[in-house]
Amino acid sequence: MPLPEKSLIAQIRRVAARHVFAPAQRREARHSRTTKNGDVVTGIGDDCAVLRLPSGHDLLTTTDFSLEGVHFRRAWHPPDSVGHRCLARGLSDIAAMGGEPIAAFLSLALPPKLPQSWVNGFMKGLLRLAGEFVVPLAGGDTAQSPSGVLADIVVLGSVPKGKAVSRSGARPGDRIYVTGDLGGSAAALDLLSLKRKKLAPKQFPKHFFPEPKIQQGQFLRSKNIASSMIDISDGLSTDLNHICEESGVGAELWAETIPRGTLGTTRKPVDLNFALHGGEDYELLFTARPQHCVPSSISGTSVTCIGEITRRKQVFVLKSGVRSRLKPHGWEHFRYQ
Amino acid sequence: MPLPEKSLIAQIRRVAARHVFAPAQRREARHSRTTKNGDVVTGIGDDCAVLRLPSGHDLLTTTDFSLEGVHFRRAWHPPDSVGHRCLARGLSDIAAMGGEPIAAFLSLALPPKLPQSWVNGFMKGLLRLAGEFVVPLAGGDTAQSPSGVLADIVVLGSVPKGKAVSRSGARPGDRIYVTGDLGGSAAALDLLSLKRKKLAPKQFPKHFFPEPKIQQGQFLRSKNIASSMIDISDGLSTDLNHICEESGVGAELWAETIPRGTLGTTRKPVDLNFALHGGEDYELLFTARPQHCVPSSISGTSVTCIGEITRRKQVFVLKSGVRSRLKPHGWEHFRYQ
Questions:
Q1: Which residues of chain A are within 8 Å of residue B334 when distances are taken between CB atoms?
Q2: Predicted pLDDT at A297
Q3: What is the mean pLDDT of chain B?
Q4: Which of A40, A293, B148, B334 has its CA 20 to 30 A from that of A261?
């Protein structure tokens, strides 16, 4: 790759020396790093990372941009939140397949005058979450950015052969479930954009530090509970539509049963529209055959039945006895720019 | 992911409908796409792609940015060249490990007013090269770009277990070899930046359409010839330094033996400095034990001995009988901005 400006090289090296690219750590990491579900045979410091998958497993791959001004704003999001959210997006995709994360790869382009403290904070947030899920950062790319901070995260995962939970397995009569509660992240974003003031991240953890539901996804896959699954990154209406489209079915949601998040750490539930259309909750949306026993809580996270899959290929929402079409709005209403 | 502006969505969908994300193709692709070295069980259209590796193989992973204004300029590079070069960078990393590419993933962010024809050209160049190496585009991400075209390519590959050729296997006494010739790409870039005029891509194929050396890398790995290997993306002086650093050795290059590229399709050899420091040739640089028989050509590409590995941990170049230090200059001298 073309080398970025010297000042930027120095900046990335400073981060690297502490966290990622240190040559001394490379040799140590080369033949030693073992995660629960795969070995990193060669990490950072070669043309490719070399990984060994457990036998009898399929490989999961997901990539997600985190672009300044599109997915986050430096004025709104502290750097450790940006790093956390960057990795959380990828981990959540692994969770949605019922998989186990193996390794992450970060492509990171930085503008020349970015303060070193910002980069340190970003890496701190990302690596803290990586540590929590035992996901080594096994490689990536660095470059000078033409504009703003640009990150692309790749997460690799594994799942027993043929057992990945897709979006396409929903059948008419299946019940629709969601983990946790919805709309908390979008409500915080709405506050940020309306008031254009800083929010205290600790008071709005659903927005600033969302938790990917890895354990829950694995449980739903290993117990053969989920017939289809997706993570709610774009909003319930949009993501349910993805399941319906891929499965060739429709759905009816019951508005009164949808678990609504609260506005930050208050007890005030968010407006139903945030729960229906707000994105970035990173909860799991899944379907299960009606005869299946679905637990009401998995690893401390609630599980709620919110509707059922129908034969007619449209999505409706039933509210106060009135049935109306639910179109996928999702992120178009909740924008960063 | 937050949805980009409607106009951009429409633009990406138009490309997608033809090339990548078409729902009709998704179902077809879901259980059908088989490449030489792995199955794409689930391609685009789910939270993750699901891939099946051949048994007894390790997984290779590489990610590379292609950012407008950093790695290419729209005024200099036609879109099919940008698409080709984007994927070539990733494939070349797989080649450098002696691997076989399995699948590619493209994260692509586009500015709102980019002409549709540019996106079509980009995808055409990328998919033409993907077709040549039978590498399915199995997923990725799309977004609105805050500035210019931003691409991040991920290439996954496979290699027989434990057989990946690393940068760290060079030993004192090993001979140093290079495939093809060097400096042709950087000389073209130099012309572009000095004259600030368009070049005819067909006359400068080494710069606009470099060929990753997949077959050559596999041959060198399968015949146990290469003791260490890297692709020349940053320039000979920089990439040889990587091998020396990772192997804990030094090197001596023989200037007169370094195969120099020509200026485009002319017969004029490029200046030695382009061959020593110019990047983006995507040839392979490798070392081999002195007793090994190294062919002078592999799959139609020449192989040339250009020096030897030494115990003393510095890199020298011998030119007209004079021995001088060769510092890694690489891309710092050949910049896009």
A1: 2
A2: 98
A3: 88
A4: A293
Nearest to A2 among B94, B99, B335 (CB): B335
Inform me whether the pLDDT recorded for B28 exceeds 50: no
Contact B63 A107 (CB under 8 A): yes
pLDDT band at B37 (very low <50, low <70, confident <90, very high): low
Q: Distance (Å, rounded) from C-alpha B171 to C-alpha B250?
A: 9
Work out the number of other CB atoms within 10 angstroms of the CB of residue B36: 12
Q: Taking CB atoms and an 8 Å cutoff, what residues of chain A touch B53? A: 53, 59
pLDDT digits 0-9 by tens, B244-255 = 999 999 999 999
Rounded mean pLDDT for each run of 10 residues along chain A, 337 residues in total: 41 47 37 54 85 92 95 95 98 98 96 93 96 94 92 96 96 98 94 83 95 98 98 96 97 98 90 94 97 96 98 96 90 51
- Residue A27: the pLDDT is 38
Q: Which residues of B touch A168 (CB under 8 A)?
A: 27, 30, 46
pLDDT tens, B147-173? Answer: 899 999 999 999 999 999 999 999 999
A62–B42 CB contact, under 8 Å: no
* B70–A143 CB contact, under 8 Å: yes
Beta strands in A68-168 (DSSP E): 100-110, 137-144, 150-160
Task: Identify the pLDDT of residue B89.
Answer: 97
A306: closest CA among A333, A281, A284? A284
Nearest CA of chain B to the CA of A332: how many Å?
Answer: 6
Count CB neighbours of B333 within 10 A: 15
Whether the per-residue pLDDT at B59 is higher than 50: the answer is: yes
Mutation pick from B48, B51, B76 vs chain A, by most beta carbons of A within 10 Å, is B48
Long-range pairs of A17-22 with CB within 8 A, sequence gap ≥ 24: A18/A120, A18/A123, A19/A123, A19/A127, A19/A137, A20/A44, A20/A123, A20/A137, A20/A140, A21/A45
Distance of CA B204 to the CA centre of its chain: 17
Residue type at A261 in one-letter notation: G
Q: How far is B121 from chain A (nearest CA, A)?
A: 22
Size of interface A-B (CB pairs under 8 A): 242
Contact flag B59-A65 (C-beta cutoff 8 Å): no
Closest alpha carbon to B282 in B333, B210, B330? B210
Q: State whether B49 and A60 contact (CB < 8 Å).
A: yes
Asked if A143 contacts B331 with a C-beta cutoff of 8 angstroms, the reply is no
Return d(Cα B156, Cα B11) in angstroms, integer: 27
Amino acid at A41: V
User: Distance between CA atoms of A44 and B65, rounded to whole angstroms?
Assistant: 16
